[in-house]
Amino acid sequence: MNLLFELSGEHPDLPAAEIGCVGTVLATAPQVAIASCPVPEDTLRLSQTHVVMEYLGECASDKEEFASLLRDLALAPEEPFSCRIKRIHPADLPAPKMELEKMMGHYIEGTVSLKNPRIEYRAIFSDGTCYLGRVLHHIDRGSYAYRNPMRRAFFHPGVMMPLMARAMVNLTRIQPGGIFYDPFCGTGGILLEAACIGATIAGSDIDPAMIEGARVNLPHSVCFLADTCNLPIADKSVDAIATDLPYGQSTAIKAVSLERLYTQSLSEIQRILKRESRAVIVTHQDVSGLAGEYFEIVHSFSQRVHKSLTRQILVLAQ
């Protein structure tokens, strides 16, 4: 089934890449993606999407073209419906928003209900194109606030927030039941998001305090003390890995240098990761040259967190 996605604007490319865990991306535009997804309900796991829709069609961002698309589709829902227009900055609407919504209501045969619609039709105007869809669900991104690090039993500052942690998990394309591992698990934030989508989770850290904290936050998980330069894990035994590598500032490291730590850790990640599987690593510096010695680099993203920290996110494949 082809689906239309209204994406978060927090990053220009990462939200579309995240969709790869549930389908095949066919086309993109600013804050818009079209993808073939065999199980639409699986899209509920996405963290960088606002709205998921059944893809109905597209046309040029022109009032007459939009009217023609609506006439050709001849939509006739049996239940009350509403119509919504979304403009993605800096796109221009071909007519006032309310006028376009009224036009949708005119060409769609049935009962319009603004108070209690059972169906929502949504037109997104982005980069000169109008995309039309029927809403399947709105992603409840507010629910991630309940997993805010400060709400957890054990808290440590400087950890990744749940929305980004979930995106890291999804970029690995781990599926429910698969073995997901974080070799620098800290307090377990990335592991928690992997558990939420049904993965079998395991994590390790070299800091005993972090392992104790992870066990408190994830009492039914496997968390153990280990040096990532020499992991006690069998070859090709892990389905997916996502981790936020130490920055060497407020985190403990055992290696003689960060460069040595990164080199040996990437070697170990390659060893334990199954063939045709993915790893996602987050660092504070560009390590694509080093990572390219061990993996194919599928995606590379930069994300500014604050003035003194820009995350480098690499999606790696065997």
List its salient traits:
alpha/beta; seven-stranded mixed β-sheet; VC0802-like; Rossmann fold; 2 domains; 318 residues
Describe, in plain words, how this protein is organized in 3D.
It is a single chain. By secondary structure, this protein is of the alpha/beta class. It has 2 domains: 2-138, VC0802-like, CATH 3.30.2130.30; 145-317, Vaccinia Virus protein VP39 (Rossmann fold), CATH 3.40.50. The chain contains 8 helices and 14 strands. The protein has helices spanning 14-18, 63-73, 97-107, 162-171, 189-196, 208-217, 258-272, 288-291; strands spanning 2-7, 24-29, 32-36, 49-60, 81-87, 119-126, 129-138, 179-182, 200-205, 222-225, 238-244, 273-283, 296-306, 309-317. α2 (63-73) runs parallel beside α3 (97-107) and α4 (162-171) packs across α5 (189-196).
Mean pLDDT: 95
Number of helices: 8
Question: What is the number of E strands?
Answer: 14
Superfamily (CATH H level) name of the largest domain: Vaccinia Virus protein VP39
Helical fraction = 10-25%
Q: Which architecture of the largest domain does the CATH hierarchy give at level 2?
A: 3-Layer(aba) Sandwich
Q: Name the beta content range.
A: 25-35%
CATH class group of the largest domain = Alpha Beta
Provide the low-confidence segments as ranges. Answer: none
Across the major sheet, the strand order is 2-3-1-4-7-6-5
Element pattern in H and E: EHEEEHEHEEHEHEHEEHEHEE
Globally, the shape reads elongated
From the alpha carbons, calculate the radius of gyration and give it in angstroms: 22 Å
Structural class of the secondary elements?
alpha/beta
User: How would a crystallographer describe the biggest sheet?
Assistant: 7 strands, mixed
What is the CATH topology of the largest domain? Answer: Rossmann fold
Overall tally of domains: 2
Query: Whole-Å distance between the termini?
Result: 29 Å
